[in-house]
Design brief:
7 helices; single chain; 248 residues; alpha/beta; Collagenase (Catalytic Domain); five-stranded mixed beta sheet
């Protein structure tokens, strides 16, 4: 009887791990189960990160690292309160890069137009994987009077690329006449279309609010949950199974 119970418990646990909150599942597996959910956006599915904990470091010397303590925290909180808050993905570390590949993302700060070196996991171990701007002396000088705002909305947009989300205006179904001459397709395309074109996406240059003011649209949220898990799904309680095994 004890052997039978143990076998049944094992089957239940295995089933729970497949249907639970997804914290032990690869993001690719989650994507397969949500392709028909109606999520919208322009992801590059082939470069979705297979892990949910993505190592993150700052590529800068100690003096610069200390100088930008406040700006670094603004960046981290921008990512935490948007992409992380609405999914199971976590960017972890946020310390200085050591010179050894961290198997994740390295961030550099330069006074140029911010950019991601690649979409999704193709940014792994690139140096840098993403470039941000904290000064705005040469690029986007209007940010001089609102640096925190600019740092925040840029971080949300660029880390969307790091999660493998392409520019929404790159979609082939972008409506004619909606985007200006300065809002045309740019960068690497996604490889999958989901739902209708989303004007309000933080990944859309044509959004009337720059990078959506750093606020994910409902479709941005649907997209990140489709590929990196939904934190609102209830966890599976296996306490009764554990108690049954221990009772023997």
């Amino acid at each position: 009887m004890k052997l039978i119970r143990a076998f049944i418990a094992l089957l239940i646990v295995l089933t729970a791990s497949a249907c639970g909150d997804g914290s032990n599942s690869s993001s690719a597996q989650k994507a397969d189960t949500t392709k028909q959910s109606g999520a919208k956006g322009f992801p590059r599915v082939s470069t979705i990160w297979p892990e949910l904990a993505i190592p993150t470091c700052w590529s800068m010397d100690t003096a610069t690292f200390n100088k930008y303590a406040s700006q670094r925290e603004t960046t981290r909180l921008a990512v935490t309160s948007t992409w992380e808050a609405n999914s199971l993905v976590r960017f972890v570390g946020w310390q200085q890069c050591t010179g050894v590949p961290n198997q994740g993302v390295s961030i550099a700060v330069q006074d140029v137009g911010p950019y991601s070196a690649a979409l999704g996991s193709q940014a792994r171990n690139l140096s840098p994987g993403v470039v941000l701007n904290f000064e705005f002396a040469n690029w986007s000088q209007s940010c001089q009077t609102q640096k925190d705002y600019c740092i925040r909305v840029i971080a949300v947009h660029e880390f969307g690329h790091i999660l493998s989300f392409a520019h929404e205006q790159n979609r082939p179904d972008t409506p004619a006449g909606v985007c200006s001459a300065n809002e045309q397709p740019q960068g690497t395309n996604g490889d999958t279309l989901f739902g209708a074109w989303d004007l309000n996406s933080v990944m859309n240059y044509c959004n009337p609010n720059w990078n959506g003011n750093g606020n994910l649209s409902p479709t941005d949220i649907a997209m990140v949950q489709a590929y990196y898990g939904d934190p609102n799904l209830p966890p599976v309680d296996i306490t009764p199974i554990t108690s049954m095994l221990l009772s023997d």
